[in-house]
Design goal:
The structure is a homotetramer.
Chain A: E1 4-12, H1 17-27, E2 31-40, E3 45-53, H2 64-74, E4 78-83, E5 89-94, H3 99-109, E6 116-122, H4 128-133, E7 138-140, H5 148-161, E8 166-169, H6 178-182, E9 188-192, H7 204-211, E10 215-222, E11 232-239, H8 246-269, E12 273-276, E13 279-282
Helix pairs in contact in A: 3-8
Chain lengths: ~280, ~280, ~280, ~280
Amino acid sequence: MRNTAILSIVCPDRKGLVAAIANFLLAHNANILHADQHQDREANLFLMRVEWDLEGFDLGLHRFDETFGPIAAAHQMQWRLALSSVKPRLAIFVSKYDHCLADLLYRHHAGELYCEIPLIISNHPDTHWLAEAYKIPFQHIAVSKDNKPEAEAKQRALLDAHGIDFVVLARYMQVLSADFIAHYPQRIINIHHSFLPAFHGAKPYQRAFARGVKLIGATSHYVTEVLDDGPIIDQAVTRVSHRDDLDDLVQKGADLEKVVLSRAVKWHIDNRILVYGNKTVVFD
Amino acid sequence: MRNTAILSIVCPDRKGLVAAIANFLLAHNANILHADQHQDREANLFLMRVEWDLEGFDLGLHRFDETFGPIAAAHQMQWRLALSSVKPRLAIFVSKYDHCLADLLYRHHAGELYCEIPLIISNHPDTHWLAEAYKIPFQHIAVSKDNKPEAEAKQRALLDAHGIDFVVLARYMQVLSADFIAHYPQRIINIHHSFLPAFHGAKPYQRAFARGVKLIGATSHYVTEVLDDGPIIDQAVTRVSHRDDLDDLVQKGADLEKVVLSRAVKWHIDNRILVYGNKTVVFD
Amino acid sequence: MRNTAILSIVCPDRKGLVAAIANFLLAHNANILHADQHQDREANLFLMRVEWDLEGFDLGLHRFDETFGPIAAAHQMQWRLALSSVKPRLAIFVSKYDHCLADLLYRHHAGELYCEIPLIISNHPDTHWLAEAYKIPFQHIAVSKDNKPEAEAKQRALLDAHGIDFVVLARYMQVLSADFIAHYPQRIINIHHSFLPAFHGAKPYQRAFARGVKLIGATSHYVTEVLDDGPIIDQAVTRVSHRDDLDDLVQKGADLEKVVLSRAVKWHIDNRILVYGNKTVVFD
Amino acid sequence: MRNTAILSIVCPDRKGLVAAIANFLLAHNANILHADQHQDREANLFLMRVEWDLEGFDLGLHRFDETFGPIAAAHQMQWRLALSSVKPRLAIFVSKYDHCLADLLYRHHAGELYCEIPLIISNHPDTHWLAEAYKIPFQHIAVSKDNKPEAEAKQRALLDAHGIDFVVLARYMQVLSADFIAHYPQRIINIHHSFLPAFHGAKPYQRAFARGVKLIGATSHYVTEVLDDGPIIDQAVTRVSHRDDLDDLVQKGADLEKVVLSRAVKWHIDNRILVYGNKTVVFD
């Protein structure tokens, strides 16, 4: 298991940024393992992810803030420090379609997703058996038109109680309220079963089939107030033909959804995604 | 060079269709080389493409209509007979972007597209040199807001004069009138530089870039009265990332456009595309 | 659930084959749902898969052999009749890597693979829990250099006892004996973790990494006596870069393996694969 | 047109490298536009590409060597400085297959390849017309078993006379001598029409067809003494099926070859490829 620190930075682009960061890290004897940066010319932004070995790093992490803070302030950096040894805590929301849930649970079990999953919340009891097989606590919270605020209050209480860091909507077929979303900025990942922006909203496979497309897709994105409009994290497509009926589209699409969602979750856990405006940089 | 006949059929699905066609061909000693069929359950349609060697076929083609006609009528078949020895005549419309034109001309030269290209029409003189390199007649017809009907009249006169069978819009940046389109049903192929239905209309690369998509695409389709809404023939996508700026999208997209358009043209020439409703079957 | 019959045919190509089959089916009032055919010019072979509704088919299946037999004999057809209502019985062999097993079990559970799985055989006990979660009988048969013949005897006894129709090697890390293989011609499907014929044999990811390839792949194929040399059913690749270390290759490859193996299993179950020489036709 | 400098560095990985380079650039007021780095754990190597605007850079390039040299020496850096304003000079070698040549010439014309092409050398006169269309000097040098040394001497004399920086073998069907290759280390790019290491050597499409693969590929690589064994730059594949005969493979493959070769050429021109051992890092 790696014992590393990951520093993510977004700030206005200007001269001397790389030198400032590199000198700070060198001054504390950091052994840099990975560094990625990007400059968005249009937005005049500098984005960086740098990961170093904590072995030999001579700055106590409790003093990181006070030491790096002034450097960050001088360059107007928004920054975040993460430790690879600290597993983020994930809650999965699911309805009846269970392919993404099964996929995430298997990957977690196999060590692909370095996180804790202390909680699965579903508006249906159907996937309880899967949660049990992987020994993950499962909570059934029914949602209807009438009880949505109460249901969300229960969900949020559970998220709080379990110290959840981020939420994955693994084909959760309910629309979350703006208020709920506002509490978890860039911390809710959704999978939409089309290549956005095509077929945003309901029944994308049906509409793709009706349109006669030759490719179907899936999109993982951060959830924002506007439905299916948040920053895109990953997309994939696969070929379909006249030989595929609607069921084939759904089945082929399920494989895309699994891959595209699990990649987003993995990148989020590994602190590889930086959001700016309505876009993402993925340092993969 | 092949000396074959290709029969394309669309009709209501019912028992006995394959037997009727197979018996007809066998009765005239046809050596079937390829046969493909599809049944659309939803629309209750049967679609077929069958190709046979004319060597040994004992029915004179001048008598095909009267011999096959009654069989077709009995099954309410829409049908079309094509001969692989007869090259269809293609006119290419182009504006200033010349990558699709250059690609089509090279493929034609290399023998990939078995057609005649007696005519290139452009609203700009810029691509004249390419037409010359490949020895294809080039006509410059300027188009403006004011002269569109006259320009289209000239274009149609040229298409008539050259006995054109089908038109390819190789990034032709003008919208054709409904009247023009109505004269060439399922005979105008367009390339749109996005994965439709996403980003239909103007400036798709700019909009894809602004939306932060992780895939860009291209779509070839038959032109109908509604812009970018005709039956899709082929689509392809390629991955993009934050490292790609708008120019990169345009350049990567150009490669998709070339492949997706040239495949559509090839399939059209080879009579592999059957249209029904707003969809296509491609017997590739 | 469909109640259909699927007839698969391979025979020398000659005139009248389609008519013979179509007339036979029409004579017994068959409603054809799908028909696919292929002619291999080089080998002069005709291959066909035809599926029809048994509702209304007026030939009792117990009399199919005697009725269709003479037609088949007249055209030297090798043929096979399958019923979509009869689930084939699959045994999965696995070692310690469990991603393909988990994937197959989930797909089976989700109804994607229309078969029975009465048996999992492993040379390690590690995957027992997965078998239990999906309620599939699990047999642990240790295999070593010394006991291979005995181990294979036990395996074959189990396959017999469970009436197994076909075997899937889901990353089973033992080489089966020629004798074992000979008992299940075209009935053992393997997944190899490279795009064959590149990196056949041991440690393909290591060798791919050492060679510096920019794509890694996976191949599903029928097992024949020559290692990794049987008829290829499906292949897929994914992009890798210098940013991917060996572990990344293994993890990205696992996703390919799952998709490529499960497609092969599905096609096999649906009688979509016809083998001729060392090649396959897949009527997908 | 950009007026930038690109510094490429390969050296043993150790602390302080990024700081050393960043401080050097900052000291001379460099505005960094792009920076990419990679650490190969296995080989303990650090690789970097950094590009900055020469506008405002206060170190005269004639003094770059003496100023940066000591820093480089202190860290055992192999380094190379390139200027985006200086177009490298490319010679294309071609035989009769002209699709890669046509593609490269078009892309060069369209501004995708920022280089000079003062020379095309062919062992056949067939592609002369293409060279003429794009106004590129064409030299026909016949090659036979008997005259190979003389032919290569002529070729090298032409490369010298035209101040050629790098050579692209655009389906040049002759094997170059070890001596020839030794004169242009990492400066000869070849396209091989298979996904290496599968089907290295002669007739890859025929062998792919005989093996019944479901994917065909193409590989661009630097040429080394061992045939088809040099560092891989890029690879791509496309799906084929039983419906594709050998000619289809050749035609589908040609599209791969064009894309894979032109990407390699573009990356080489843009100084995006770093070679270490038998691998490449592509900072795309």
